[in-house]
Queue: 3 jobs
Job 1
Amino acid sequence: MKKILYLTLALTLLFTSCQSTDQVQETQDSYQDGEYESSEQSIQKDQKQTKKKKGFSLFDNSEKYLYGKQSTLFTFAVTNPLKQQDAFAVYNVKTGDTGFASNYMAAYYMVFLDEYNHQLLEKAYNNYLSDFDKKMLKRDDKQTYKEYGKIEASLNWGSLKKSTPNNSKGECYIGYSFYKGSPYFTLTMFPMFNEYSNITDSATRESLLLNYYFTKSQMKLILENSQKDNLKKDIGYDFEYQEASDTY
């Protein structure tokens, strides 16, 4: 009888340990313009395993950033095309800029825009929606990554979410690209000089080549969540507050 109980307990523990929570996979946008017969198949699910990272961080920036709502995006790399990542709206306490943050390959990247460039990104996204609906997207044009112009963006990144000392400023190209027959709104940033490398020789000299891919619904959420008024409500933080000076 004891052997049966032990066997039952062992099987229960094995079953429990094998269970994992799958990240909800974003479905690609369907785009049928007569040139390509797209399938209903969505990109293969990426099982995400959460790993707790232990250890002491020499550059803890947890006080510099405030995080808002979570959404998703795709990162694109030659070795791992269109990997879905969790993304968070984020506010830079020092600069007042807003943006999004996610893993990118083996690093954690934050992309920040000021209010003017955020508005330019919204305008570009609306132009993309119009071209999408009018079936005006070009499948074979290799220059569509900059179809809607460029904006100014700043980056912070590092090996951990709590440690992102590397920082750069530069151009972010706005456009779109097709992958497996479906179009994606894209943000492309070529490697930028890392200002932090002026302080320490151990820092990388440049950022990665960043290619962010978004379905229509993903970009809509990114824009909404990173809009300053919405972030203010989500975080409960008064962006306009300034400490009053002492009267003397």
Job 2
Amino acid sequence: MIGIIDITASKKLNQQAIVTKFLVFAIPVFPTGHYFIDRNNSAAYKAKPCKKNVLKGYSLTSLPIVFLVLLYLWDVFNVPIFPIFIIYGVAVSIFAFNYNIDLTAEEEKERLLFQKSITLNALPEYLILSEQIKIRDFIVTKLKTYLRDYDMDWLKNVQTANYDSFSLPLYFAAMGYEKEINKTAENLENYNILKNRYAEEIRNKHFSAI
């Protein structure tokens, strides 16, 4: 098998995940890129390197190499290879399918807020800077279009809490990316305020619908 293929995925939630692609010549040679894949919208965004995906990828595809080594040892030293290979295969499988699979409860809640707001549930910190800027600018343009105020200072509106429940989701999402692009204590504080208010807004709507 020769080509570039998806070996591993992690941070899976609602058909969206971080995927690592490998260049493969029968076995993986090296990772060629990390992407956040949104299968709901057939979209891909460049992600920061995911070391855990790389470890999982190499562990899964180390099986044929280990088998060849064991064949050599069996031929030269008469080593009982099958019990060793079975134990190794089980260990690799357990590691690959349980390492870095589950999200924390807080991480899942936060991603669901982003998905409800802009359909993309990647946390901004998953993505590289250029993708963060592109998505932030897209959200801000969408926000200005929605409010029909193309000259507004959206960051000032955040600082003065000049938003309503209808614009809150877009302010929340935009601020989520802004606090990663420009990492200041003020941006982080404003993001946490928006996140808590947006989460509370969703809870209130849920209870009122019951």
Job 3
Amino acid sequence: MKVMKKALIGTALVGALAIGAGASNGTLSDFYAEGNANGNSIQTGTVKLGGTTNTPIFNNITKLQPSETPTQGTDITITNAGTLDGKLSLTLSEYALTSGLKNGAPSDTDMKWVKLHFDVVNAAGKTIASVESGATKAELDNGVKTLNTLLSGYTFKSQESYTLKSSVQIVRDKAADQNGLQDLTIEGNLSWKLNQL
């Protein structure tokens, strides 16, 4: 019995020494340094339009006639309300041209007198893009394309506002027969889009 007690005490002592040696070796004998990076956060930016919406540029322009001066459209404010800079583009849709005087659409000869003008002006009052266009669908499509080409070279900064100015005119020519433009109706939608850079 004494031999067994001695053997158990000896085994327990060897185990305690081994644990003590391991603990000492793991925590006290190695050099180390620590660092951390707390409070990490990632948030995406936003692309958002603000300003004027659902307002026609040419709102209720009636009784347009040949004139030496253009008729001004409604100024449209376009604001980059997001946190990211972007590029602005415009799209023409739902174009329709009708005339109550003639059977069918007016001729190209009649339409050459109708001119539309668009300017995009920054907050400082500087015109950054400008285009004059005829009023047929092909001419307006080409005018919008030209305007988009000009706008593609300009960055619309976050939180800045821009103004889309417009005018329409039947350029008066007293030597020409402009009677074919009576009772003319031009309709369509203009929309704009802001894309991230």
